[in-house]
Amino acid sequence: MPVALRTYCFILVALLAAGPLAAAEKVAKPGPVTDPTEASLEPLLAGEFALQSGRLDEAAKSYLDAARAADDVALAERATRIALLAKDDKRAAEALALWRQQGGEGLNLAAAEAVLAIRRGDERAARKYLKQLLQAPGDSGWRQALGVLSGGARDPKQSARLLERLVKDGSIPNKLPAWLAFGGLAQGLEQPELVERIVAEVVERFPGEARVGLLRASQLREAGKDDEARKLLASLSEQAGDDRDLRRALADEYHRLGDYPAAEAVLAKGPQDDQTYALRAALLAQSEDKQSLTRLYEELRTSASKPDPQRRLLLGQMAEFLDRFDEALDWYGGVPGGEQRWTARLRSANVLHELNRDAEAYKLLRELQADAAADDESRRDAYLLEAALREKDKDQPGELDAYARGLAAFPDDPEVLYARALGWERHDDVARAEADLRKILVAEPDNVAALNALGYTLADRTTRYQEALQLIERARTAEPDNPAIIDSYGWVLYRLGRNEEALVELRRALTLQKDAEIAAHLAEVLWVTGRKDEARKYFDQSRKLDPDNRSLKRALEKTGA
């Protein structure tokens, strides 16, 4: 928090501490108010209350009034940010002018100018401010420009037009990470021709750089040219050598192609550590290649004679992947100590449950819950795991009992309350889910996960859309670029009948994160607005990401797609 804002907060607290009589006396003093701090106090307090209530339009007005009264550059910047978030362009322009007048300068100001210009449709002015950001030394400027293009535009086509012009003008800094980032943005905006242009530019600027090939392979995959993408990745794999980061990036691209054996083979080259071994084991398990996983397992067993907690924990997990549960128990039981010991005990309970030795599994979890030597996080996780296993057994009373005991041991623990709230929602008990999420917010009013979960639940499962919007706005204020929160925001706009606004937000969320639920939401809104061919594309994307997604199933049932 800037120094000026800290000062106002201290004054605000002091006024409240003085009590209502002292406050009344202060207000009752005759004559004009000359102290800018005192004059700004009332609108600042009103703005904070509005912000904490998710009423961004009121917060924007009050913060602008406070900034005018205080003549403070930090408050003017804050007022500008809130007005932009509230999509109150008129007040944003006024706050921005005040910010400049009070001496504001630098990258933050240029970024705000760019966003407002984009909102107005003044793309020439937007390019001017974006170029200021792109020409700034270091990496902060181009990263801010990337954020403006990914989040400030009204729709993907507008972002694409601006980015295409910046590329054409040679405005992107001659830095490989910047070009790769803007190439990734073009790909997320589903602009294959622009991606092609950026790839060509990057190849010319950075010849022989393997990461350029990664961008090209990603472009081919997005275009459905999987065979060409694999061919390119194979050539890049030969160049990777001992570059661990590049090998992991290649493996990730193979993973996106669904080619798990190839991803594992890339990771198998070069130096190995426990993290690499764990990734390889997970990939082999996903591909159900038990023969290769067994070879890797046997390879690691030979070096496990020394009591290395991390290696034994890994071998236990690999034995789980192989369904060699008795061996997994032996490895977990042999973890000698350290923080891995508690993880090993939790995994042991899970293995016992897989072996249908439920009584032993729950006994082990009860012992861990009562073990004073264990850290609080592990003890709490023992309650959460017990609840998850009871839910897997379709034992709702046992699940609820585990949560109840967890909350008795860790009163109002946000993790336990959050997990129980999700459980209530799964069982269609929205009232109890809401109660648990509100308990979290009583203790932690700014808990973003709880704000978003409650807002989304109310939007999705009730008709209390305005209340849902206010909760989501509070979460959005804290994390404006979080794709899960942007998805919730788009969804509640759809529920409010603001379909075109909803599409803007849902497209942006999917650009930031390829997720089955977001894709299903976007598809449903497209379907109900009559764009059925485009909707089918996103339904297909959602199916590929997670065919069992609950939102996808509900959307398909509702639309009949």
UniProtKB/TrEMBL annotation:
| Sections of the chain in a coiled coil | none
**KW Lipid biosynthesis (keyword) present:** no
Which terms are listed as keywords in the entry? Repeat, Signal, TPR repeat
Which stretches are TPR repeats? 516-549
Which SUPFAM superfamilies does the record match to this protein?
Answer: TPR-like (SSF48452)
- UniProt keyword Repeat present: yes
Question: Matching SMART domains, A to Z?
Answer: TPR (SM00028)
Please give the name of this protein.
Tetratricopeptide repeat protein
Organism taxonomic ancestry: Bacteria, Pseudomonadati, Pseudomonadota, Gammaproteobacteria, Lysobacterales
